Write the structure tokens for this entry.
Amino acid sequence: MTLRIMMSLFIAASLGVVGACSAEHHAEETPKPQAETAPQAQPPAGPSATGTVVETMNAGNYTYVRVDTGKEEIWAAATRFDVAVGDAVVVPLEMPMQDFYSESLDRTFPVVYFTSRILREGETASSAMPAGHPPVTGETIPAHDLSTPASEPVEPAEGGVTVGQIWSETAKLADTSIAVRGRVVKFNGGILGTNWIHLQDGTGSAADGTHDLTVTTLGTASVGDVITATGTLVTDQDFGAGYTYAVLLKDAEVVID
């Protein structure tokens, strides 16, 4: 089954164009027509909704909440967390999944936001997780605004290409295997059985988005890691709902420095 068939996603705030933590495990959830995605570890930098939890349930590794914002009710899901009816929460409005069917719950949600990390009102990322707690597997960890370059340049891989080159030489590099070395600035795990990485190396331009490369991989990495990703460069990937990638390094092998 192709990615186009399996997903109609966001990935918008995370990709700069568009990105899993594990919700219900990919093997447990058959998306109809989409797949469950992944939460982040900080309050949202983009649009969010604040409201009161009026219903909650656990399914697989995810906690679902129905939140009354005072204007409407929305469904959201994040990696399992403790929450109760009546709690005031902040929900990042990320990864809206339309007509999402959960096999575990045997229920279809008209829209559910598979989102960063749902926090109680007033709670911060540091208070939500104990100091030094390692990232939850598949957790999305935003490092910084993806519209700005990574703070430090990264030396290219031997025999590899830079992020800037990938964008400027796309026609030449498309459908070939390439290696690129850069710093992980965002990680989305477990989306459609793969992990999604935003990679930057200090090349390219933030003004037109050519400073950032999206990588799909079965490997894992943490924000801040310098990695070498080797995979096939594909172009014009359209997953529907307006989420498209002009370039994407697909099925990459990842080696952490």
The CA atoms of residues 23 and 62 lie 4 Å apart. DSSP finds five helices and twelve strands in the chain. The longest helix spans residues 163-168.
